[in-house]
Structure formats: C-alpha cells, structure tokens
Amino acid sequence: MTxxxxxxxxxxxxxxxxxxxxxxxxxxxxxxxxxxxIGFDAAASISVEKAYAAMDSSILVAIPLFVLAAxxxxxxxxxxxxxxxxxxxxxxxxxxxxxxxxxxxGVFSAMTGSSFVSASTMGLIAxxxxxxxxxxxxxxxxxxxxxxxxxxxxxPSIVMIIYGYLTDESIGKLFMAGIVPGIMLxxxxxxxxxxxxxxxxxxxxxxxxxxxxxxxxxxxxxCGDENSAAPVERMSKRKALKEAxxxxxxxxxxxxxxxxxxxxxxxxxxxxxxxxxxxxxFVYRTxxxxxxxxxxxxxxxxxxxxxxxxxxxxxxxHVVSFGRIPQQLLETIVSLDLSPLQLMLLINLCLFLLGxxxxxxxxxxxxxxxxxxxxxxxxxxxxxxxxxxxLNVNLALITPPMGGVLFxxxxxxxxxxxxxxxxxLLPISMILLVLLLVVLFPSIATWIPSNM
Length: 452
What we know:
By secondary structure, this protein is mainly alpha-helical. It has one domain. The protein is about 75% helix and about 0% strand. The longest helix has about 35 residues.
C-alpha cells in the first residue's frame, strides 16, 4: 500500500512542478486520477458537483472580504503610520529600525491576514529607510522576511480560514490559537535581530535621529557606505500614536469581537472592510472612488485565484478520499509503531521538506487531507495541530528555494536573492524554535481557544 502513497505524492509534485497555476494543477490531477477509476464522463460529472459544493460554504465568504480589507489597508497608508509609530518608540536602539519593521508588520498582519501583502507593503515602506540607515542587504532581508512571515500565523490569517474549511474546525478558535505563537515570533525575531546586531556592532549602524546625526555615526564598517547612509528622521511619540491610532484599533475590533463572541469570523471580515473604507474616506482621506474601483478589481482577481484553488483542491480531495489514500497512510504509520513525539517530529520533517518545493496552498491541499485521519487516530487536538501546520506554512513561505516571500523581498528591495536567502536564516531558525515549543507545550496554542 505504501507504493500507492508514494506514487500519489510523486505525481502531485510533478504536476506542481509543471508550471501550471496551483488551482488548475490540483483540478487537473484530480480529474485525471478520477478518470482512471471511473472513466471520463463520470469523473467530469463528479468534478462539477464537487466544485459547486466546495464554493457553497459560508466559511469561504471571509476570504474575499479579508482580501478586500487587506487591499484597502495597503492603499490607505495605515502601514506607513504603523511603521512611523513603532520607529518613534524604538529610535534609541541600534536595532530599532529593524525591530520597528518586524513589530509594525505584526500589527499589519493582524489587519490583512496575508504574508505577501504584509511583505510587499512593509517592504516598500521600510526598505528605503533601512538602506538609508546603512543596514546591509542581508539585514534588510532578515527584517522584512521575518515581518512578512507573520501573516500566516497572526489572525485573521487567510491560511487559517483554508485550514478551518478543510478540517471543519471553528475559524474563531483557530484565530485565537495563533495569537500567542504570533507574539512569540515577534519577540524572538526582535531579540535575535538585536543579538545579531550587538555581536556585530561595527558592521551595523544604530538608528540615527534628526539632523544632528553625522554621516560618520551612521556608517559602520561593512554595512552601507558613506554615500548611502543618512540620518533617519522620526516624529514625536504622541503624533505617531495619533496617526496610527485608527490602524491599531482595527485588530482590536476584529479579534476582540471574535473572542467575545460578538461576531463570527465572516462577520468580522465584513466589519473590517467597512471600517477600512470609513477610515480611508473620512479619517485619512487617502481613498477615492477611482482608487476604490481599482482596489475592488484587484481584490476580485485575488479572490478568484483563491476560488480556483479551492475548487481544484475539492476535486483532488474527493480523489484522495475515493482512493482511500489517507487510510492507507494511517495503516502504514500504525505499522511503524512510533511514539507520539516521534510521529510528530516525522510529520514536521516531511512538511518542512515538502514546503521547500511547494507553494503554500499546494502544501495544505496535499498534507491536510492525508493527515486528518492521523490526527483523529492519535487523538491530537485539532487546534493545536493547526498551529503546527501553520508554522510549517510560515517556513514554506521563507525557505529556499521556492519560498514566495523571498522573491517578493528580492524584487521590492532590489536585493540579490542569495542575500535574501542568507537573511532569511534568522526568521527560519526562530520559527523552528517556536515550532518545537508548540510541539512540546500544546497549551501555547490551546490556552486562549480553551477559554473562549
């Protein structure tokens, strides 16, 4: 039976490597395999039925709404205000600008739910200032990839919604489960960056403030040069907080409402859209009707792409179930006679290796249907395993050679991909540490959801 599982995984990887968009690749593989079982006519009929059923889900309503909210937040200038607020509090630290990038990315992720939106937006905002302060390309990459990776764990994560849809788990509980690991990642990223800079002080400049900072102070050996380094301006804390207040309130309203049971995840997504539109039109006044139309079109395109992935994944999921592949995998695992910890470490190793070569959605649609019976058999908490899965998704986003966030950072910052990969080693090591802690101490993930 193991040969069928290996054959399925290899076929899946070959289709994903063919260059087809993920959604089309999933659907093509599903129809092709189903045809070998029951013939093309029956396969086509079942595929249409499964595609319709996949989209007929109230859970998925949250995805286009959160995508729209992310686009609105990106266009209204909230990201810049969050970055300025963080910078105003951290200007005194040598690593302040990098930590400001990470912390503001965390708050930004709590509004957008997307790692790619967070990495691209904060990359555009922070890269010029990091470079002007004399940060090396590797340090810039470390700061932005660390911040960008937070979008998959910190709620309202779109990846969490997909996991909840595939496992029929409460989206609200999944959102709450990501809070503590997300905060841990922000703190560990910041400590690791500070430690690295303190050990390499001569090659990393402190964050300089105002015109009084001299060029000599902002240029340190091996990091920047005399022509590129310049003082970094900051505004007062009061003014920065006033500017960022409405942005800081967004995650409080979204997550607070879900935790208190005031509204569901889908309702929270709708409220987020309305809130962002009101802020954009009447508070920041950076949103216009013309810009809103463009935002709606971009959000529709992204949502359609996600919809195709959901449909393709539903067809493939039916094939996986029809061929009893999860049951065969479970039988194989039981025959290995592993302890729960050994099995968990083996699963994480497989997810890590697959994440190096698969896009995030492809990884989830391959792994989750196969692992659901294993989770049930081992009597593992589904919310706990969700956080483990999402941390592996985080790794997949920033792990060479296929980490999508790496290429976003490279493109936006005009940084050679090799230097981006070098910088990504810092967040990768911290994610692995948090992953190990969550595996050993499940309450890190389950504490807040269990108190809802």
